[in-house]
Input
Amino acid sequence: MEVKIKLNGKTVVDDIPADMLLIDFVRAHGCKSVKRGCETSACGLCTVMLDDVPVLSCSTLAARADGRSVCTLEGLQAEASEFVGFIADQGAEQCGFCNPGFVMNTIALLRENPDPTDDEILAYLSGNLCRCSGYVGQLRGIRAFLDEKHGKEVERG
Amino acid sequence: MDRPEYRSVGKSVRKKDSMQLLLGKPVYTEDIVPDALVVKLLRSPHANAMVKTIDTSKAKKVPGVVDVYTWEDVPDQRFSNAGQTYPETSPYDRLIIDRHVRFVGDVVAIVAAENEKAAQTALSRIKVEYDVLEPVLDFRTAKDNPVLVHPEDNWHMLCDLGGDNTRNLVGTTSDAGGDIEAVLADCDVVLERTYHTKAYNQAMMETFRTFTQLDRYGRLHVISSTQIVYHVRRILSHALGIPKSRIRVEKPRIGGGFGAKQTAVCEVYPAFVTMKTGRPALCVFSRRESQTCGSPRHEMEIKIRLGANNDGRIRALGVTTLSNSGAYGEHGWATVGLTGHKSIPLYTGSLEAFKFDANVVYTNMQPSGAYRGFGATQGQFAVETAVNELAAKLGRDPVELREQNMVREGMSMPAYFGEVANACALDRCMQHCSDMFGWKEKFPVRDMGNGKVRAAGVAMSMQGSGISGIDVGSVTVKLNDDGGYMLLIAAADMGTGCDTILAQMVAEHMECPLEAVSVFGADTDASPYDSGSYASSTTYVTGMAVEKACAQLKERLCAIAAEVLGCDAAELSFEGGCVRHEATGRTVSLPEIAAKSQCNCRLAPEATAQHSSPVSPPPYMVGMVEIELDRETGVVEVLDYAAVVDCGIPINPALARIQVEGGIVQGIGHTLMEDVTRTPKGAIRESSLFTYRLPTRLDTGRINVEFEHSYEPTGPFGAKSIGEIVINTPGPALAQAIYRATGVWHRELPILPEHILLAKPEERES
Output
């Protein structure tokens, strides 16, 4: 079947099998940041934005994205760059395999709630597994980013 | 003690690959390889069976299928998949495909196809008739069982370690000091206890995967997610029967390993396909395959005999371990040794006698391998819980009891090969952790009045730093044209940050900014030999190779500068950015030295050095946990986890801290969530991340990590290791906290809510 998907701002027209998963579609179109971790919607690694809403691309048919917009980390480099350095400062990226899904969901969180509490951060990202970091370093990184950002805003105000 | 101020070492710098990883760049195996044949494996539904007939004709006719291989197509030459130094301590008990399948998931056929769909279809069209045999599914009855897991004649071991395939034995080991029976007979209290831990899965986020192709010279080029490039080269050579010099193995970034990728779990399959077809091949394990056909922790049953006097003096410790290696023997003998050698020495302070005996057995279950902690985790769960049980029996505070008995700096450790604890801050770790955690306030059990109760537990730990007398670390350091350096390694950064840590050491020795050091690794065609990244070896062993290589390189750079200046190299000294002629004050810059080395020069501006250590200095650690246990549901919530670690001098404190935090959360998972159970036919039930429940970020509680420094004289900048020790304390600390809250000692992990609720009152101890 033919689909027309706006992938990272660029319209892609492709003839795909009806049972193709969105993760395989975006990887086939060069978006290698999207990772498969579990195949059972349990790990969050394959998170992409479908019309700006985070979804698990391993359990979404590519056909579902027909006529809609899909965004992967490849398309959100600037937005991610605002905060990922703070996670690097903690060394909490570790092996990095879970990072794209975790970063995508963090972007979604910060769009929805620009000043989340620690509990809100943990709850929002609880579907993003990480086996390396033990999570607390990632929280410190996001907290350091928010503190600096809001500290700066206070200064400006 | 006064220590020099370092400019790179001891600094929490970012990992060199951090931005690549965090911004999702294509850096992993599956991201970087060209189109390749899809390699899929048909796996046995039986725990023990012979393939009577196998018909692949229909599978081969599926459009897109290139070929299907069975036991009839592979070399009849046994090898081991274990990533260990040659000669390996693991038995040569594998074929690429064996007619005799030995666990649910053992490989029956290899399919190579143009695409995923064709490969999947082909799998369903292979017709196999099995002669189903009785399996060995209880590791307690495996030894000398009439059913043999490896009855074949060509099973063999390279080392005599007690392995005997006619008795289902992978290996045996023992050690002793003093007369344990006499001391036990003289003790006021003797505890005899049995503990059981399961085959936990590493569950790294990137499953096993390997790409293979023939390179421009017709050599086999392997790109694999592995911790052990050189060992993989040897394993493939043995398995395929081709010379090592015809094989090149490299690793890109690795999506986690934790020891799983210290075994060549999937490399042989695509390599075999490429050798047969001449075409690129890619094998990616599904999560299910990683969970059920991987290389998890060894299930163990450990019997403890602990003798003490009423005054708290721990006088005798006996550890008897039975380890379940599963269907193949990878790392079996090596792992079990740590259950005694890394647990008994913790009580060196007072022990008069010890005894350690271990058997490793074959069963028809998923083969086990290396997992962070490597036997120490299991041994310390048993010993540390027994000590906590002793504290309860004697009515002693378990912190004070440990302080009375623990190993201290300067002591010789008879149960640790007689090594001396040259750098040991375990006593300070205990004190520091008690203060930080608030042990005095949190140890008393507190009923919260809402059906919930709060309680605390403690455990201590040790590990090693590399494998003494075996592990080899090598590096090449070379001067680049612009005055920067290139560091070539075969140690494998699997996310831990060893590339960065080793670069920090180069920067320190060569007195240059960290940015001036580029790292390349790991590739058997370009990196000098290294055992690989396992056994907590990289910082300690490979770090010393960095020290040696940098010392040699400085001399070499002076020798090249001497040609520039027309003087004797002995008149020159290395000063970071340049080489200086002492007498005249003239200097030669590094770019000038590099330029000279490329024009009419016979001296290469590089040095390669290798290191191996006769000792394996233990890091030490104390962990304390506070839980809130719901008496209605049995749910345990971790509130606070405090840990203080002595890893010598941390080279990168931020990365060291993350190691601790990550290890603790894995340990919490093993203790409270992750379970491995089997169907009566021997299939693993927890085959997905739905059923094998990893901790999420809501399950960690508050984790506070601090360090107590010691200075290890044989390590780089005083460093010891940290990668493995961090996983060991949660098991015993949580088991104690749960006992404090419920009055029941759970001696089997994991401790799930249902276990807590179903524990019978008669199991309670007076």
In short: Chain A touches chain B through 51 residues (CB under 8 Å). Chain A is about 40% helix and 15% strand.
